[in-house]
Design a protein that fits this description.
heterodimer; A: 375 residues; mainly beta; 16-stranded antiparallel barrel; globular; disordered N terminus; B: alpha/beta; five-stranded mixed sheet
Amino acid sequence: MKIRIVSILTSLVVLFAPSVNALEVDISGYASFAATKADAQDTSGNNVIYNNGLAGDNVQFDTADSILGLQFSASVSDNIDMTVVLNANGAAGSNYEVTADWAYATYRFSDELSLRMGKYKGSFYMVSDYQDVGYAYPWVRPPQEVYSTNPIKALSGLNLVYQSSLGDMTLLTELYAGSGTHNAYYLPIVADTPTPNGLGNSALKGTTTSFETPNSAGINVSLSGDVGTFRVGYYSTDVNSSTFGITEQKGEFFGVGFNMDWNNLVIYSEYVDRDTAPTLAGAFPDQKAYYATFGYRVGKYLPYVTGAKIEKGKDASTFAQEQSSVALGMRYEVSDTSALKFEVLKATPKDSGYGLFYNTTEEGTIATAKFDLIF
Amino acid sequence: MKLSYNQIAKILLASSLLFVAQSVYAGVAVITHPDVKEIGLSKDKLAKIYLGKLKRYSNGEKIKAVDLPTSESAYQKFYKSVVKKSERAMNSHWSKLKFTGKGKPPVKLNSPSEVVKWVASNKGAIGYIDGKYLNKTVKVVLILP
């Protein structure tokens, strides 16, 4: 599979190469190589996997943490840019298949205001824009309690970006509208007891189902300065899923967070709230999730600790995931464009509930080593 | 053309004077295209330019910033005293903007002489170089000792 990406990427580079001079295509990219291992068992002592095969009993290299991305951007005219980001990751369902998560044209009305047309990433979280660029954040991966609550990666449509200065700060306002087809990993909550609408059907245990989001729209506002960034966002969509027999049911997603990187002190914290129509309670139950990360930079080392929690949302659905976790990690700057990271995470499902482990109510640990680079 | 000893001596003298004149700019020189009208470009403004926060000069002309390789001593001096960010912090800053289509880093050139050439031939261009690479094709707007 890896050979396949390399050959695809190589042919793309060759394809683009002749136009490099004429169009000035900028090529840059990012890559992450990870190894994960879980120590987690169900009550009968069987090994279980973590969040869509992110980690399992054997040391795994092909997971969602292993990513290769290439960005091609070109200025077509003074006001128009084209951007394509090709991305491949090792997650169970993707097998390094190359997808374009970003493919859009930007029209600049002014220095402040621009319109992106095409496929773009949804700004649901603080780092959702650059979630695949591991180099850009401290952790081995963003805390999964929060970052698994919205399975949408990209939307197709329009995205209006307004960037302005507020004194020494930059205010970014983003309005977007569009639609998309996505995949969601279905973690069975009470999978052995089928419920109305076929939800919680054990046949769906651990499967990836496709769903659509027509009529999506959202807003993302962030204020950033020397010390850090504060952001807040809201997203609303209709959800269709033939697997779950769902048509045009409403889902809403709210997120707020901040990060700071100030005098060696690094803090990240976010809170998200997923609020869906009652008919979506099986597939996408209401959830609340939050985390806080504290790190302190000592030369090239950045040790950090993260506490995270996912819990029942407004409707207190019995399908909701409930778990808390503590992670201890370390980032080491190998060079100015690469970092090596280690993390050990202990996740504890709440009481007899289910968290991000596949079908267990027991606690478990995940160890990860990761190398992130940009080029 | 044959040169007399006298002419050679004059050339040598002139070039040594040039050398003296150049060594006045022992520090890092911030340079712009000769037509750039900006007066009093502060370190603060420069930092904003190199962080991608300031995109136009006071008269509205578009700023086109160029950068040196991180291995150049002028890069080290400039980022330490003006932008006040480490290479790691800069890479992190741009990777967040670049991969999300929200900003573009300054054009990276390979050498100080390329920077001089680029700045001299692009309207609105700004760059920085070690003073010894200065020539008359560009305008000096600030000297960092």
